[in-house]
Each structure stands twice: as C-alpha cells, then as structure tokens.
Amino acid sequence: MTGNKKSIYSALAANLLIALTKFIAGSVTNSSSMISEGIHSTVDTANQLLLLYGLKRSKKAADQSHPFGYGKELYFWSFVVSILIFGLGGALSIYQGIAHIIEPELMKDPFWNYIVLFLSLIFEGTSLFIAIREFNKIRNGLGWWEAIIKSKDPSSFLVVFEDGAAVAGLIIVMILMWVSHSLQIPELDGLASVIVGLILVFVSFILARESRSLLMGEGIAPDMREKIAQLAEKDGAVVKTKNILSTYQSPEEVVLMLIIDFEEHLDTEEITEAIRRIRADIKNEFKFVHFVIIQPE
C-alpha cells in the first residue's frame, strides 16, 4: 500500500501543477484540445484525492455494523473514479472536440501551448515512470495484462492507466496541434480532443470492469483454491474438501469458508481440534486470509 500511495501522490502533484496552466494556455490560444487536456488533468487530480480517501477509509477498523471491516471502500471509490474518467474526462472531451469540429476556430499563436504541453509531458512522464516502477514491484514476474487481471488492488494499476492515458493524450495533442496550426486546419484541433476523450473512455471501461468485479465479491483464483484444498486434506482427519467459498474484503484481506468432509469415526472434540489445526495452517501459509470459517459436511 505504501508504494501505491507514493505513485498516487506523485500523480496528484503532477496533475495539480499542470491543470491550471493548461486551462490558461487553452483560453489564451483558443485551443479546444488544450481545454480538453485541462479537463483531463482536473479529473485526474480529483481521482487521486478520491483514491487516497478510499485507501484511508478501507483501513477503518471493523465494528458491529461492518464485522469484516471497511476494505471494500477502496473498491467502491475506485469504481467511482472509473465513472468520473468516463463522464467528466472522456465524455466532456469528446463533446468539446465535436463542438470545435462543427464550428472550427483558428488557433492563435500556440507557442505557450507547446511550452505547457512539453512541461506536462515531463511531469506526467515522471509520474508514469514512478507508477510503473511501483507496479513492477508487485507483478511478481507476471505479464502486464495478467498482473492487472489478477491484482486485487485497483489503486496499484489505476494510476498507471491514468498516467499512460495522459502521456498518450499529450503526444496526440502536440502532433495534431502542430499540424492544425501549420496547415490552418482548425478541425484537427477538435479531432485531437475527440481522440483524447476516446482514450479516456477506453481506460474507464477497463477500470470499471476490474473495480466492479471486486466490489461484487470476487473470490480467490482457482489455483489458490486448489492449494488451500490440498493443505486442508493433508490433515489426517480430513476425507475431502467439498467446497471453498471466498471473497476479497480488501486487497490484503480475504474471507474464506471451507466445507469439509471429516472422517466418520471422529467425535465433536476431535473435529473441533482438526478445525483449529486447519485454520492455523491456512492462516500461516496465506497471510492475507484473515477469516477462516470451516463447516463440517
């Protein structure tokens, strides 16, 4: 979590620094794509704040109304972030771009736009580098897409997607802005805004998909279930693990329920002792499993 916060703080600082300058440059030079980039940076700034709030809320101690804790707060706020990227980032950028294509206006001298975009690229690139470095620490040799699918912590890859989209958007805007100004084709500036919006919509769908799955109660992976079943069946009192039910309460906390078929000759005290052993073995092997409920068949 510490590494995730580091990448979030770096992204927050970068977006906060450049959002205002993009709006000023866009207003001065009459550039639709720069206004869209300003919207993008503003939404990203709000997103980082929401992620930090979600991380803080997810650490709240369990109470009577939430006996398993508040870990799913992170998944909820990650889902909210994906909606904001779609609505405030993607949709507004597309709208702004289409409006500029329908009623094109010649761009004024884009010199300051280039300065702002270049500085933004440095800030966003630095933030992306930090986010990628922190994400690489938890990938454990997995491919990028596989690591994202298997990750149970949206904050670990959300910043990577946001910063990646930001860098891609900045490059597209710089290229189309230069072509638009050089050839006096103002519609290209609007097209850049539309492309930035489409990139944000694509990113929002990926993030919403992953956050929704976790929010709805995603369980542990099949290979993990198999390992837990084998661990339980090593105990001499166990005949077979009938079923394993699980759900992530947070990236670092799993609720686990095992339905186990015990040897018929065991009495209640022996079964209780076996349950204690199995629970201890599972918690010792899998540190993220905080709650283990074992139901005899």
Automatic annotation (TrEMBL):
Domain of life: Bacteria
Pfam families reported in the protein's UniProt record: Cation_efflux
Locations listed in the record: Membrane
Keyword Membrane: yes
A Gene Ontology BP annotation from the UniProt entry: zinc ion transport
Keyword field: Membrane, Transmembrane, Transmembrane helix, Transport
GO molecular function: monoatomic cation transmembrane transporter activity
Domain Cation efflux protein transmembrane: 10-216
Primary subcellular site in the record, as a coarse category: membrane
Membrane topology: Multi-pass membrane protein
Gene3D superfamilies reported for this sequence: Cation efflux protein transmembrane domain, Cation efflux protein, cytoplasmic domain
GO cellular component, one term: membrane
Chain segments annotated as transmembrane: 74-99, 111-132, 157-179, 191-208
This protein's name: Cation diffusion facilitator family transporter
Organism: Chryseobacterium rhizoplanae
